[in-house]
Design goal:
- There is one protein chain.
- The protein has 105 residues and is mainly β.
- Helices cover 5% and strands 32% of the residues.
- The strands form 2 sheets. It has a 5-stranded antiparallel beta sheet with strand order 1-2-3-6-7.
- The longest helix has 5 residues.
- The radius of gyration is 17 Å and the shape is globular.
Length: 105
C-alpha cells in the first residue's frame, strides 16, 4: 500500500505567478479588474501601513497582503491590506468623507 497524499490537485489552486522571499504572489481576477496579490508573512512585515479597506493601521509583525492592478506600471499603485479587508473589498459600500461635526447615522 502506498502512502496517502494530502495534496490538492492543481485545479483548486489560484494561478500563482511566482514566489518571493516573503510569501506567495498570485494573480486574481475580479469584477474590479485583475490584480497581483502578494502575501506578506509576519516576519517580513517590518513597517506600519494604513489599510485602505478599514482605514486602520497594519502594525509591524502582522501578516497581510499587498495588491496592485495587473496593468500597473509603478510602485505607487501598491496597497497594503488586512487579509480580511482584501477579501471583503467587493462587499463594502463606498466610503463617505464626513466633516468633523457631521453626525454619523
Amino acid at each position: 500500500m502506498s502512502p496517502r497524499k494530502n495534496r490538492r490537485n492543481g485545479e483548486d489552486r489560484p494561478a500563482v505567478s511566482g514566489s518571493w522571499s516573503g510569501g506567495l504572489q498570485q494573480t486574481e481576477e475580479g469584477p474590479d479588474g485583475d490584480w497581483v496579490v502578494r502575501t506578506v508573512v509576519p516576519a517580513n512585515a517590518t513597517k506600519p501601513y494604513r489599510c485602505p479597506g478599514c482605514d486602520q493601521e497594519i502594525p509591524p509583525g502582522t501578516g497581510h497582503v499587498v495588491a496592485w492592478p495587473l496593468d500597473s506600471r509603478g510602485l505607487e499603485d501598491r496597497r497594503h491590506w488586512h487579509r480580511g479587508c482584501w477579501q471583503a473589498r467587493l462587499r463594502r459600500a463606498p466610503r463617505t468623507q464626513r466633516s468633523r461635526g457631521a453626525p454619523r447615522y
